[in-house]
């Protein structure tokens, strides 16, 4: 019989509507680049895979996929679509998902701030990895629109970020503070980092298929956050 974990201070809920409240996701067809240069759909990722992301200095680096914060293979929902000019890219993400945005054409990481996808506007800039050179460049957003797609996937990496369709995005959502979320998930990241060093545990669980649904830790954090943070801190959804 399956067991649903509970949190200190409150129980985690199993309300299916929670997916729309906490889910910050990409569609199943969204592509990531592995450390070896091959591309793979997020729906085909497994814990332990190493995907490309960007570190604090703006350098493209590999980062380990730890788990999925949300995973719904058959769910059909509306995504926010961002299209850029040069380099040309197209990325889909849920409205409450965080992406790094600047008002100016700059490649300096410190000038990019996390923003809900629903708040991004045309004329702003996001960071795109250029195909060929592999360099990270700012690219102006030329179009924003909504589109329905199938599957929702939210991989969590050790860096808390990843390049999706060569666009730099956060692994987090709902609260417009990437560093807060990264700190909140530190215990979970540490646990998975430590267990990955244990051969017996890793061989039995490292590539295990994660069940559909929101990860229990995400549900607990959302419930706790609603207790201690102002409503204004959360995406309106």
TrEMBL record:
Its GO CC terms are: extracellular space
UniProt keyword terms in alphabetical order: Developmental protein, Signal
Fetch the Pfam families from UniProt: Hint (PF01079)
Segments forming domain Hint: 23-130, 133-177
Which BP terms from GO are recorded? cell fate specification; cell-cell signaling; protein autoprocessing; regulation of gene expression; smoothened signaling pathway
InterPro entries per the UniProt record, alphabetical: Hedgehog, Hedgehog_Hint, Hedgehog_Signaling, Hint_dom_C, Hint_dom_N, Hint_dom_sf
Q: Which Gene3D superfamilies match?
A: Hedgehog/Intein (Hint) domain (2.170.16.10)
Please list the GO terms describing molecular function.
calcium ion binding; patched binding
Q: What is this protein called?
A: Hint domain-containing protein
Record organism: Scyliorhinus torazame
């Amino acid at each position: 019989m399956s067991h649903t974990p509970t949190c200190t201070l409150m129980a985690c809920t199993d309300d299916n509507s929670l997916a729309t409240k906490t889910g910050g996701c990409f569609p199943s067809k969204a592509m990531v680049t592995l450390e070896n240069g091959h591309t793979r759909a997020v729906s085909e990722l497994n814990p332990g895979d190493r995907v490309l992301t960007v570190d604090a200095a703006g350098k493209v680096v590999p980062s380990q996929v730890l788990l999925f914060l949300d995973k719904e293979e058959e769910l059909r929902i509306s995504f926010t679509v961002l299209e850029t000019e040069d380099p040309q890219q197209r990325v889909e993400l849920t409205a409450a998902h965080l992406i790094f945005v600047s008002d100016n054409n700059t490649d300096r990481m410190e000038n990019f701030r996390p923003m809900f996808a629903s708040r991004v506007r045309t004329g702003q800039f996001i960071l795109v990895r250029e195909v060929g050179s592999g360099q990270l460049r700012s690219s102006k957003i030329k179009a924003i629109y909504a589109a329905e797609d199938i599957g929702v996937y939210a991989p969590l990496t050790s860096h808390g970020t990843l390049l999706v369709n060569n666009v730099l995005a956060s692994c987090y959502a709902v609260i417009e503070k990437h560093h807060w979320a990264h700190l909140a998930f530190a215990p979970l990241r540490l646990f998975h980092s430590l267990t990955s060093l244990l051969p017996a545990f890793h061989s039995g669980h490292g590539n295990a298929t994660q069940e559909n649904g929101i990860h229990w830790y995400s549900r607990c954090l959302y419930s706790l956050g609603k207790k201690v943070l102002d409503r204004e801190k959360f995406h309106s959804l």
